[in-house]
Design goal:
With about 500 residues, this protein is mostly helical. Helix content is about 75%, strand content about 0%. Helix 9 packs antiparallel against helix 10 and helix 11 runs antiparallel to helix 13 (about 380-390). The two termini are about 20 Å apart.
């Protein structure tokens, strides 16, 4: 540890009890925030997260009507979500860099303005300019990237240990809840007004309230404030490339990111196509006439939305609570819970798909179980990241995880699913039954992907404890495996920095 001579006090005496000796440099006093303010900030961030994920899936809740309005085929409809996700993932590293080095509050505010304005503008696009609708979804994705990247790091700096686990559980409840309410809002507004455009005109009103609350109630805590590892002003900041190299050697981060990618692949495909799949299943069973003109019956979007909300709440709470309790007896609890939930979700989703032509009730039951098991992971994977990554790199880590997860996950899965369905349908007779079977068979790859995700979390469990210990060590930069002197300094100060 470097030494520093303190400045003489007002009476001319040295700050070191008059000895004039050089003492080790001490960090500034821990950053404090009243408990009510931290809770209020968490509540606001949860509310904005709700709106964020409503924007992700509001299109899926009105997909049939949007397809009819812009004359978009299944093979191209998945591009709506792909454009959204691609723009999100391309901008996520930029927001991660800004979030680690500049005002996170200002960056979050800019993101809300972006996605709100783009969503409102998309409701005024005429049918001959369908490409503008695709473009508007991309801008919404850019705004969403700022929030998905930065908001969890703010919560990580407001809370620690069990408190952080509980708060993250509540925060990530709003992923499935917001997704489900996106379907519900889209279908409900469509039924009330007969026009899908009003779904995009209601959201900006809610987002204006969110922006005001964010500015008024959410602070911008120092990085690592909860762990009492405030940054020293004199210490040079590590570069973005150094942060990325550190994360690439952090195997718990790498394997958990691949597990998150598998989850994103499946939830992206299901979230976009499941309402239409359920609608066509009811047509095949003779419970619903085909939709030949809009407005289409949006009952399936409403049902799927409610199902997503309910299973999401139960799943996130169940996963977070199981993690909190199991950690008391097994320090590798988090990745093991993720692995078990995914390996169990795979057969549930498979049964939901293959039973749909036979019995809708059984299909809904297994679909609900699969969604519940997938939702068990949202808060747990966030806690894994925050526990194995140094505080000053968390924004970059969130951005990289989002980027990889979306590049290999839900950026392509809606499009790939629709493309496979279109290819299968092209070689078959033109009927609703064949359309349904083509979409059903294109979904089957999701079951194998989710099983691979479970394997990635098993590998995460093997490296978790070592990476957590390294992340708890006090340091001013990212650890370098080739820098023996740096490691020695870290080890020498570890005891003094750990929380009692």
């Amino acid at each position: 540890m470097s030494a520093e001579c303190r400045e003489p006090g007002p009476g001319g005496h040295s700050g070191a009890s008059g000895s004039g000796a050089c003492l080790p440099r001490s960090t500034s006093a821990p950053w404090r925030l009243p408990r009510w303010r931290a809770r209020a900030a968490a509540a606001v961030l949860c509310y904005v997260n709700l709106l964020n994920y409503m924007n992700w899936f509001i299109v899926a809740g009105m997909l049939l009507d949007i397809q009819n309005f812009f004359q978009i085929q299944d093979s191209n409809a998945g591009l709506l979500q792909t454009v959204f996700i691609c723009c999100l993932l391309l901008s996520a590293p930029v927001f991660g860099y800004l979030g680690d080095r500049h005002s996170r509050k200002a960056t979050l505010s800019i993101g809300i303005l972006l996605w709100s304005g783009a969503g409102l503008a998309s409701s005024f696009i005429s049918p001959q300019y369908s490409w503008l609708f695709f473009l508007s979804r991309g801008v919404v994705g850019i705004g969403s990237a700022s929030y998905s990247t930065i908001a969890p790091t703010v919560l990580g700096d407001l809370f620690v240990r069990d408190q952080r686990t509980r708060v993250l559980a509540i925060f990530y409840i709003f992923i499935p809840v917001g997704s489900g309410l996106g379907y519900v809002l889209g279908s409900a507004v469509l039924q009330l007004t007969g026009n899908w455009r009003w779904g995009f005109r209601v959201m900006p009103c809610l987002e204006a309230v969110a922006l005001i609350l964010l500015i008024a109630l959410v602070p911008d805590p120092p990085r690592g404030a909860a762990e009492k590892q405030e940054e020293a002003v004199e210490t040079p900041r590590s570069s973005w490339c150094e942060d990325v190299r550190y994360l690439g050697r952090n195997w718990s981060f790498v394997w958990s990111t691949l597990g998150v990618t598998a989850i994103a692949f499946v939830t992206g495909a299901l979230g976009f196509w499941a309402p239409k799949f359920l609608f066509e299943a009811r047509v095949v069973h003779g419970l619903q006439p085909p939709c030949l003109q809009d407005p289409c019956n949006s009952q399936d979007s409403l049902i799927f939305g409610i199902l997503t909300v309910v299973t999401g709440i139960i799943g996130v709470v169940l996963g977070a609570e199981a993690s909190r309790r199991y950690k008391k007896v097994n320090p590798r609890a988090e990745p093991l819970i993720c692995a078990c939930s995914l390996l169990t979700a795979a057969p549930c989703l498979y049964l939901a798909l293959v039973l749909a032509p036979v019995t809708l009730l059984a299909s809904y039951v297994f679909l609900a179980l699969g969604e519940l098991l997938l939702s068990c992971n949202w808060a747990v994977v966030a806690d894994i990241l925050l526990s194995v990554v140094l505080p000053r790199c968390r924004g970059t880590a969130e951005a990289l995880q989002i980027t990889v997860g979306h590049v290999l996950g839900d950026a392509g899965s809606p499009y790939v699913t629709g493309l496979i369905s279109g290819i299968l349908r092209a070689g078959r007779p033109d009927s609703y039954l064949q359309s349904f079977l083509s979409l059903q068979q294109s979904f089957l790859c999701c079951t194998f992907v989710i099983a691979l995700g479970g394997g990635c979390f098993l590998l995460t469990a093997l490296r978790l404890e070592g990476d957590q210990a390294l992340a708890r060590q006090p340091g001013t930069g990212t650890p370098d495996s080739k820098d023996a002197e740096s490691r020695a300094l870290l080890s020498g100060t570890r005891v003094a920095a750990e929380d009692p």
